[in-house]
What does this fold into?
Amino acid sequence: MAENVFEVVKQSVSTREAAAFYGIEVKRNGMACCPFHDDKNPSMKVDQRFHCFGCGADGDVIDFTAKLFDLSPKEAAEKLAQDFGLIYDSQAPPRRRYVRQKTEAQKFREDRQRCYRVLSDYYYLLKKWEADRSPKTPEEEPHPRFVEAIQKKAYVEYLLDLFLYESEEEQKAWIAEHTAEITHLERRLKIMAENKPTNRERLREITDGIEQGIKELFESEKYMRYLSVMSRFHRYSVNNTMLIYMQKPDATLVAGYNKWKDQFERHVKKGEHGITIIAPTPYKKKIEEQKLDPDTKAPILDKDGKIVTEEKEIEIPMFRPVKVFDVSQTDGKPLPELASSLSGNVPNYEVFMEALRRSTPVPITFEAMAADTDGYFSADHQKIAIRQGMSEVQTVSATVHEIAHSKLHNQKKIQIANDEQYQEIELFDKLGLFSNGRIARDNLPEGVYCYDLRGSDYDPGDPVCVEERVVVNHAGSVLMTEPLELTEDGRLMLTEEKGLNFTGGFSTLSQFLQKQRKDRHTEEVEAESISYAVCKYFGIETGENSFGYIASWSQGKELKELRASLETINKTSGTLISDIERHYKEICKERGIDPHAKAEPEPAPIEQPEDAAKVSDRQQTGDLTYYVAECMEFPNLGEYHDNLSLEEAIRIYQEIQAERMNGIKGIGFELKDGSDYEGPFPILTGQTIDLDTIQAIDYYRDNPLVQKAVKELATAMPEMEVLGADANQQEALFLIDNATYLHIQSCDSGWDYTLYDAASMKELDGGQLDMPEISRMKAVLQICDDNDLGRDSVKYAPLSMIETLQEAAYQQMQAEASQMAASSQLPEAQEQALDEYPMPDEQVSTPDMQEYGYFYDGMLPVTRERALELDAAGLTVYVLHEDNTESMVFDSQEIMDHGGLFGVDREEWEKSPQFHEKVMERQEHQQEREQAFLAQNRDCFAIYQVNRDDPQNVRFMNLDWLKSHDISIDRSNYDLIYTAPLRESGTVPEQLEKLYEQFNLQKPADFHSPSMSVSDIVAIKQDGKVSCHYCDSVGFTQIPGFLPENPLKNAEMAVEDDYGMIDGIINNGAKEPTVAELEQQARNGQPISLMDLAAAAHREEREKKKSVMEQLKSQPKAEHKKIAPKKSAEREI
It folds into this structure.
């Protein structure tokens, strides 16, 4: 199953690796200087997790990265995945519920099979590398894969033998020691098998293709096609325009798959290939920024003279490749008219010319000129002149050409608009201008690009990188005449070797542009290109004569110069098209003209529909057969069989082996009824039955032959996934391995299922699979895996069986209930208690050990059976003697020979995986632990933290932030982490402060969660009253309604209300009736408390149970055999 980003990061990256990667020096003993406080000497322990003994910072690798870079947990996990090159599924669902716990034996078998599978795959890969990558000559440098094969093959062979022939103990030991290595190897093999490039690699490949395309573009014919594409996508960047031109030059309107479906009610045709473009995928980040005075722009200070900060949300630009589809690749609802079409002799010519006048920055006049001149732009007189007497198309084309000159090459306008002095610089070997302040982008002329510099966190005035816009730590702005190619994360880092250099000069923007002014040929190419693109957009055909010199102009020019011109053409064309279109519509509205008026075409003869009865008859009398293709996309490749029955089609499909397939095999039907829909159509492709596509075609949906064919194929091949709304909504019954019935139906959260024994019809298990996004068949297979059922034999069973199974299961439940009632044995309730220290052996306690005669409190007692388990797990086990001495166990036989108690060192126990596992088991009993906390008679507390999934994204957010986003505090968004009694007296505020200090600086050994921080909730029960408090940015804030006062008491009081007998059984003093007395009350019809019954049962059980001391005393005493160095001696020293 796919893993989400949190699971992938935690399995792949330790905190120690992340710390080293981010520049924190970690000593060989795992100690490092803490980056979260002023740490002079190493005080932070870094391994899989981290803990600072100075400031109390604690957590896993995601907590560490989030704290280090001030990110949310999700942002931190995504950063780690990107930095370490990890692959994950961004849509991976949360973990499922109702999964049966596996036994240790099952876990071992699965681990062993997994290790053997991974090592086998690796072994065959090494053999292949050894053969394929071997040097051809003695002088040839060996390939790294060949070297790896030579070094690792023999060792992997040994490991495969280990898993085939050695004992289970050796295999378990090896698995425990090398689990992380196997996980890493498995992921590596998966990546090599899929051979999928990362987003960064795909972007690099795409941009390389763009650059090659630009170099080859400037041939007259290709360039014309490019401008035609650009006119249709004038709002796209040069990169994306080039990509569309290179992949589908005839594209007219593109959108993503979902946008076509949701916004335009159209669907992408089957088999169409998408057009790859680069799409922005920014993510938002919250930062703390100095609050500035709106007038003076100086930082605002509080009463203590400290700078006031405020939280702001900024957007970090990122990009990734996505697929879009042209309108010609879709079917569905007709599109609305998007723009007026002005073809031929320019209809509404006067209106269009007025729109051009309103779109130009200077006046337009008409003059008599020589025949070889269509017009000109005068910078000195700030006007455009057009030759009189030309055709409408010529006039429009010449006017747009000169408007382009007036926008791009108007030096006088630039001088008037901006005369500020800037410092001259070189930025990445490109000339530019620098300003300490922010530069207003609105007043910049066409072809000038503005970027911001970001300062470092330690010195905001010291620039460290270039970005499009910088909100925090702005260190200056620069102006360039060439665009910068920012990286995927939207920035370019500055270095000493390559970055920002001040050349020592000063100039205005006008003077700078004059120096950078393009030659006359370049200006003409840009203006003519803009004219052609704009006219093309409005349907005005201008001819191709003016582009004869494009190829010669582009020769000898560098890529960056060509790209800069394309950027200028792209940006100016888009702006001009938008302006003309807006003004054209305004003028049409002013003059009462319909901008979309067209000449009405001659009506085509309407084809009369066939008589419905004839169609129905033809459907009933037609014929349908099946076909099988080795390649469904191109049936002429490989095997093709037609005129088959269903059984023949399935048999041939199954016989086609994967290793000789020319494509994706499948099964289809061939309809023979004389209709327009006669012929072949696919049903099954690969492992998927495409019911959606078939149902979308009205003729197929209403044809009983087609519907029968699809249904019979789905029934005969239940292991196939069925795509279709109807398929996923229906309930179904399956028979698995001829032994178990599975009843499944959809529900709001995914799939609800029940398992029945086929022989006895007894209900075995059931639950919900919280994966609504998967199909019903995938859900069935997942349930089989979760419940250790075979998935090889899954058959449909008749739905009518469901009622029979449910009735039989109900009758059996009734019989069991009656039997329980007859025996008068009420179910035993578990005794409720707060979280207790996880002892290594629950069968023996410290008082038992002291009664035995051993008193060292650094030792924890265990029985013989548990001692054997812990010794096998690698913990040091001690034999405890009644004279308050101990000896270390060197051989498991010593455990078998000793008849008394054993012990493990408390410190070693607390560092062991077994201790951590016991601590984390608490999280599986949220409701019981919360009820135990609420039912306590003594003063106690409970700590809640936002659960790992954090669907509301509220971790570390203060109450003001929650209120501003209208988010309420929800108990379901929290996990109960820890409960314990209050050890000291004091008011509630005093208790909260003590707990905050304790769970940051002196956390209990069995508290394995992040330190107490903002968004945590502390519940205090004192003097019988419960209050809940939110850990805010400063102090705690009480929040009512987070917990009920006592749900157990409320529930029992409600029951007693029904009987009219509220006697306050719960929490009303110490009554200790026996089980027999309570049972007699129940027989007499009197209400009894389940809590009293449970307490009485446990009390009597403890009285009957033989104490550990009595068990030990009944055993023969054993003499000391081996005496190891004693801990008692060490203590005496």
